[in-house]
Amino acid sequence: MKKAQVTLFVIIAIVIVTAGVLVAYIRFIPQLPGQVRGVEDYFSSCVSNIINDATVIAGEQAGYVELPELVPASDYAPFSSQFFFMGSSVPYWFYMSGNGIQKEQVPSLSVVQGQIADYVKANIGSCSFDQFIEQGYEISTEEIKNVKVNVLDHYITAEIDYPINVKIGDISKRIETHKTSTLTEFGKLYSDAKKIYDDEKTGNFLEAYSMDALTLNAPTTDVVLSCAPLAWSELQVENDVKKSLEANIQTLKVKGSYYNLRNDKYFVHDVGQDISEQVNFLYFSDWPYVLEVWPSQDGVMKADPIGLQEGLGILGFCYVPYHFVYSLRYPVMIQLISGGELFQFPVVVIIDRNKVKKADVLETPDQLEAEMCKNKLQEVTVTTLNSNLEPINATIHFKCHNVICSIGSTRISDGGSLTANFPQCVNGFIVASSEGYKTTKYEVSTNEPAIVSIVVPKIYELNANLLAGNSVLGINDSAIINFISDDYSYSLYWPVQKSIRLAEGSYNVTAFIFKQGNIILEAQTTRQCTKVPAAGILGIVGIQSENCFDLNVPQQTLTQVVSGGGRANIIVTDDDLKASRTVNVAIPQVAMPKTLVDLQNAYNIIDDSVLTISFG
Predict the structure, then answer these.
(1) N or C: which end of the chain has fewer CB within 10 A?
(2) Could you say which of 356, 375, 396 is where a domain stops?
(3) Distance in angstroms (rounded) separating the CA atoms of residues 163 and 174
(4) Residue 535 pLDDT greater than 60, yes or no
């Protein structure tokens, strides 16, 4: 009976929400003649499809339609600011930069709404009226002036200033403003994703589960009665912890109504509010992962016995105390799913020397943005040009510290210029973005009037031709190539991607080739010996015998192993890209590693190898 009542309440709630959307939609509909009504209905439907496309992109990219600037990774923090997942780059909401600084990049609701509006504006031209023109309509459109988007829990409204002139027979109508309402769960998914993230940020529940996995699968602190030293393979401990995380993280759930609890309540976390959507936590053992341990030497974690030292033999026994300290960093992808719609965002879990990351209490981006962006007091003129100094259309934002304000757009029809009021800021950045061009920043102080011209380099898409030595890559080969500059980066994951998008600039290029197959790293055994009190004469100082033991590193089977790579520094000009269709990258090969020592040597060789890069 209780279940039936709950189902009835859910149905009533859905009916109420749907009715509300329909009322809002009906209120939006302008009074139009019947012959013109069909044109407006078609246009509204087309805009809704564009908004749906934008929410799919934003859902897959952690709320971003347009990806933020890529911050490269490092050996210390191999995560960059974006996570490569299922062929797409997903911005981290929390990560550790390459120089070890903890950062977050959660898009505020106003940023999400602004990017969806920009996407609608950029794709409005796909709404073709050809079918009506074939029926005798005369339809003309003017330049789109403005798009305002409002994201709500169960639908998205849009108000578009886009004059459309319609004439059929004796009826002529000019429709200047269009209002649409699109049913989608995107807003609710985004809202609940922020609830989960905020709880992780302040409570570190992922770090707590990770500490449990670490404690159960790695030596931490203990005392063992023994006269022989204790030793562990750092590689084996790393693999044990990694496998435990893979199994346990995917078992986690958020307290809600989307599952039937059949396992231990230990794996259910309460974020303070029940979540109705399905929530998945993902981590796989082949994802980036860093485990550091102290003390450790040459891959061996060793604890020496007490009781063997001169003067202590009279004790008659030995004991081995140990205390190991760990730092752990790895990514977790958090997915929310409702009615076939997906919203996902990754975070990096950080344990620093057995302590969870600190949850710094700062002003939220929403608070900072609302305060600064509403005070636009200083007039600035911005002109955007391509490399040939021709005007282009571009969307203009202004960044002051970590706050980004939407300003407007430059227009080719206005000579590529925009005059608008900006927030006052010393050493801020005007950010110009345009489809097919590199997002470009221009430093400026807006505490006085300014006139700024920004040259926005074009992005060219070139076919990638990769060579392993002098041969093309085999069918069992994969490769990663990173082109990294100060203001633009691109990563190619072969064979998933076959082309590279580059703009002019100076790039640091790194490349690695991986061979697929079952590569067996042979087991290794090293023998270590220590002095212990001689049997039968304990307590007599100075009488000792030698006790030896074998330290075994088990056999490892890898499905991918590095087989080549190198580095290069290149300068790419707009003329190079304009005249080329292909970028050729010749990657030096190394001998196939068969042992752990071979593997380390391979990376050392790659680090000194030079790529050969040409355009044609």
Answers:
(1) N
(2) 356
(3) 7
(4) no
